[in-house]
Amino acid sequence: MSHTPEHSATAAAPAHDEHSVEEIKKHVRTYLLIGVALMIGTVLTVWASLIDFGSREINIVIALVIASVKGFLVAGYFMHLISEKKMIYSVLIFTVFFFAALMYLTLWSTTPESLIHIR
Amino acid sequence: MEIPYAVKPRPDTGLYNAKLGIWLFLASEVMLFGALFSSYILLRVGADPGTWPHHWLNIWLGMLNTIVLIASSVTVVLGWAALKMNQFSRYRIYQGITILCSLIFLCIKSYEYRDKFHHYELPLKNGKIFDGHIVPDKTTKDVITLEGRQVDLHSELMEPPKAGFVPEEREIPMADIDMKGRPLWMFTYGPWHNTYTAIYFTLTGLHALHVIGGAIVIFMIWGPLAKVWKEDPERYTNRVEVSGLFWHFVDLVWIFLFPVLYLL
């Protein structure tokens, strides 16, 4: 594998206007903090799952809440969704709608009122 | 003719082609995994009381794999940031760690799969069930040796053994097994065992394919395609960003798979 040298300061810097080097350095600190938070969240999820809250439903809700917070951190900061272009949001709004509809139909189909429910 | 906006962002959307492309692809991926999560919910809610297994998987291995994947997500984003700061050698180190993490993840997952394919639930002709892991050295054509426990009812196997349980090693003659015309491998904890193992292998298998695919792309950009950095650093950085977005999505899926399959 050939060694590829770093570009000189005069070479075309890949940093865009909105991503100055100083700004990126600040972001790096955020990424590290988010990484630590995600790992703490993982340990917390395991710890909460081993506690008897009196009903398994409570354990399920707690685990899913922690997973959702972790998911938000990954999508929001690592994937930069908290500061993305409008076009990306326009795409994702459809995804959110159809995903929510899918989950709603799934949960609805498990209720006694559902015609699909055969029990 | 050069394809427009392959590197520079389009003025009206602020996005280059590949970035819009990967987000459209990820949107379809959300629906793919969403459909499988939906199947999981239906199977679980529809299961008869006492028939859905709990803690069949090693929580600590699952937790370790989650931490490995999170660490890889951190190194992916740090690698991209290093390129933005024109630090190619630092990027190389971060992405090297990412590739290493992906290999560790796959090794742990393979170990877990192997464990399931060595785990047998054997119905005996006396009406009892012996459940445990095969001891290959003590297994012959006529006798299978398992290390585990005997139970009266299948439902007893849905919960893990109580704390302090000491597994028993037993040699079981093949003639004592109620095979019901099935081959021996059908009694392992493979995808055919029950609906839980079926959805477990489907979800984690599909996820593992994504890990393999993502790792190959990251490796190709990191190694054989590294010369692009010299020729066109912005294009190279964009490639790293796009592959990173896919990798974060793979991490995101695992964040939900871990509690759903291992803990609940």
Overview of the structural elements:
The complex is a heterodimer of chains A (119) and B (264). Chain A has 119 residues and is mainly alpha-helical. Chain A folds into two domains: 21-79; 85-112. Helices cover 64% and strands 0% of the residues of chain A. In chain A, helix 1 (21-49) packs antiparallel against helix 2. Chain A is flat and about 55 Å long. The termini of chain A are far apart. In chain A, 16% of the residues are buried. The model of chain A is unreliable at 1-5 and 8-13 (pLDDT under 50). With 264 residues, chain B is α+β, with helices and mostly antiparallel strands. Chain B folds into two domains: 17-42 and 59-116 and 194-263, Cytochrome c oxidase, subunit III, four-helix bundle (Four Helix Bundle (Hemerythrin (Met), subunit A)), CATH 1.20.120.80; 119-187, no CATH class. Chain B is built from six helices and four strands, in the order H-H-H-E-E-E-E-H-H-H. Chain B has helices at 17-46, 59-84, 88-117, 195-222, 227-231, 233-263, and strands at 119-123, 129-134, 143-151, 168-173. A four-stranded antiparallel β-sheet of chain B has the order 1-2-3-4. In chain B, a hairpin with an 8-residue loop joins strand 2 and strand 3. In chain B, helix 1 (17-46) packs parallel to helix 6 (233-263). In chain B, 34% of the residues are buried. Chains A and B meet through helix 1, helix 2 and helix 3 of A and helix 1, helix 2, helix 5 and helix 6 of B.
The helix/strand series of chain B, from N terminus to C terminus, equals: HHHEEEEHHH
Largest sheet of chain B: 4 strands, antiparallel
* Mean pLDDT, all residues of chain A: 83
Q: Helical proportion of chain B?
A: 55-70%
Tally of DSSP β-strands of chain B? 4
Low-confidence stretches of chain A: 1-5, 8-13
Oligomer: heterodimer
Write the H/E string of chain A, N to C.
HHH
Percent in strands of chain A: under 5%
Radius of gyration of chain A, whole Å: 22 Å
